[in-house]
Amino acid sequence: MVLTKRIIPCLDLKDGRVVKGTNFLNLRDAGDPVELAQRYNEQGADEVVFLDITASKEQRGTIIEVVSRAADQLFLPLTVGGGIRTLEDMQQLLRAGADKVSINTSAVQDPTLISRGAERFGTQCIVVAMDVRRNFEERLGTTGIELPDGRTCWYEVVIYGGSRPTGIDAVTWAKNAEERGAGEILLTSMETDGTKAGFDIAITSAISERVGIPVIASGGVGTLDHFYDGFVAGRADACLAASVFHYGEFTVRQVKEHLAARGIPVRL
């Protein structure tokens, strides 16, 4: 059986509104989260992701009301992340109507949260989100990855919305997350986020090749072919995008028709 590839609109939330930035900075308003999610539902999105992007920095919980409002109106899986630090946080969101929870900063700080969450709620509910950036300093124990321009780097995991480096190698961390019970990896490259220059194929393919769980490519879509590249060159199981959907450059349907025409199995 051929598994269909998923297209996932991502809604970054701040103060209950959808925002979008470039390289994690310069956020601008993009609308009401439930209205946007409803639009993507109608366009045939496979899932929707809500990320409360400043929750970890501001030390507060994710917006439960937005989640329950969305869950009441949507008929597609909903993944929610941002500020989730405990199993109780996870339970609150799943009760509010989320299908999966995404953990990032808290998983790096306490990796047992992955295994405890998987044990209590099932691996299918636990998404480990990874924000990564290129690091050109030589370091033992890191995975050397060749970039399109011929340079070699390793990718470092960053936390708190990209503001704090960890020294952790991204490939090692992805494998660790899988071993601890993560059901999926949501991978965002800071270098490509919001640039519309395409996904960071180098790290996407490196992680996709080394883990057995689905990898969601995120950060950098600007053209229809970027989705194709994410699936073929990046070997991703799903492609996530934000601004091209929020500002009406493409519909989810257009993306899927383009992919189907190029031989990618999608749910139309």
Architecture blueprint of SSEs:
Elements: E1 6-14, E2 17-22, E3 25-31, H1 33-43, E4 48-52, H2 55-58, H3 64-73, E5 78-81, H4 87-96, E6 100-103, H5 105-109, H6 112-121, E7 126-135, E8 145-146, E9 152-159, E10 164-169, H7 170-180, E11 184-189, H8 201-210, E12 215-218, H9 224-232, E13 238-241, H10 243-246, H11 252-261
Q: Please, could you describe this protein's structure?
A:
The chain has helices at about 35-45, 55-60, 65-75, 85-95, 105-110, 110-120, 170-180, 200-210, 225-230, 245, 250-260, and strands at about 5-15, 15-20, 25-30, 50, 80, 100-105, 125-135, 145, 150-160, 165-170, 185-190, 215-220, 240. It is of the alpha/beta class and about 270 residues long. The protein has an 8-stranded parallel β-barrel with strand order 1-4-5-6-7-11-12-13, surrounded by 7 helices. It is built from 11 helices and 13 strands. Its EC number is 4.3.2.10.
Count helical runs: 11
Q: Catalogue the unreliable spans.
A: none
> What's the overall geometry?
globular
β-strand number: 13
The rounded distance between the terminal residues' Cα atoms is 17 Å
Q: How would you spell out the order of helices and strands?
A: EEEHEHHEHEHHEEEEHEHEHEHH
Q: Which structural class should the secondary elements be placed in?
A: alpha/beta
Main beta sheet: 8 strands, parallel, barrel
Helix content: 25-40%
Radius of gyration: 17 Å
Q: What is the strand arrangement across the widest sheet? A: 1-4-5-6-7-11-12-13
Share in β-strands: 25-35%
